[in-house]
Amino acid sequence: MAIKTPYLTVDGIIKIFDEKDRFRGIVLIERKNEPLGLALPGGFVDVGERVEDALKREMKEETSLEVEIIKLLGVYSDPRRDPRFHTASCVFVCRATGEPVGMDDAKEAKIYALEEIPFERLVFDHAEILHDFIEGM
Amino acid sequence: MAIKTPYLTVDGIIKIFDEKDRFRGIVLIERKNEPLGLALPGGFVDVGERVEDALKREMKEETSLEVEIIKLLGVYSDPRRDPRFHTASCVFVCRATGEPVGMDDAKEAKIYALEEIPFERLVFDHAEILHDFIEGM
User: Fold this and answer.
1) Separation CA A87–CA A78 (nearest Å)
2) Does A50 contact B90 at a Cβ distance shorter than 8 Å?
């Protein structure tokens, strides 16, 4: 039997806190590859890897941050969410301190205060995800 | 680029209510295929299908019930959770009325009051999932 299911991915909403534990904003990356634009950091889950471990690995690879998971926000699986193929993403809210540094698929990684998020520049369904996150805060 | 990710599945904790909206119990199926034993109804997500639609389709196929989704309980992705290959399961809590009838991969589908669940007969990580569900009730 040849089983085919959507590709499994993870994305992280990283809440950055300063040394006095004040919330500064969340991290968005400028993508190096198509589709170009701003995005939440994230990537594919490897076979043999738990989604929580994939999340921590991808956050480290793309933003250089060590994150602590707060909760699962949801699973986003609309077949049209990625123009390349069908992906289903486990989106986690997590926290970190320090400054992000863009690496790997991220040309740049920057902190955005919630009121400064340029929603119109977000790719995939990341604007919808961030609206859900802000509504649930 | 050949992308390989875990197989994506869904499982449902179906809460059954009677005609007076009293909670009767949850549905477990007797599996027809290996691994044999009791399990939550569930199955693979198809490419092109949202996880919520896969959940409703699988519940219908295996228990004949039309379910309404209440919430996502979590994503279970331990690589050892399925002895056959690596699966990641989106587990939903849902509700339905009526009597389940086992079909497809389910030899039988029955309602179990929470205090009657035979945890030792559950396959995969379904005992862990049901403990998480009961703790969060």
Assistant:
1) 8
2) no
For residue A10, the distance in angstroms to the closest alpha carbon of chain B comes to 11
- The interface pTM score, or ipTM, of the predicted complex is 0.95
pLDDT digits (tens, 9 = 90+) for B15-45: 999 999 999 999 999 999 999 999 999 999 9
Peptide bond into A35 cis (omega under 30): yes
Contacts of A5 in chain B (CB under 8 A): 7-9, 44-47
Give all strands (DSSP E) within A18-113, no chain letters.
Answer: 23-31, 38-39, 42-44, 68-76, 87-97, 106-112
DSSP E strand boundaries for B1-137: 7-17, 23-31, 38-39, 42-44, 68-76, 87-97, 106-112
Whether residue A47 contacts residue A126, with contact meaning beta carbons closer than 8 Å, is answered with no
Residue A100 CA to residue A60 CA, distance in Å, equals 9
Q: How far is A20 from chain B, CA to nearest CA, in Å?
A: 32
The answer to whether B8 contacts A6, with C-beta atoms less than 8 Å apart, is yes
Count CB-CB contacts under 10 A for residue B115: 7
Whats the size of chain B, residue-wise?
137
Place of tokens 């540094």: A101
Please answer whether residues B42 and B12 qualify as being in contact, where contact means their C-beta atoms are separated by less than 8 angstroms: yes
| A51 vs B contacts (CB less than 8 Å) | 75, 77, 88
For B48-75, write each residue's pLDDT tens digit: 999 999 999 999 999 999 999 999 999 9
pLDDT tens-digit map of A10-39: 999 999 999 999 999 999 999 999 999 999
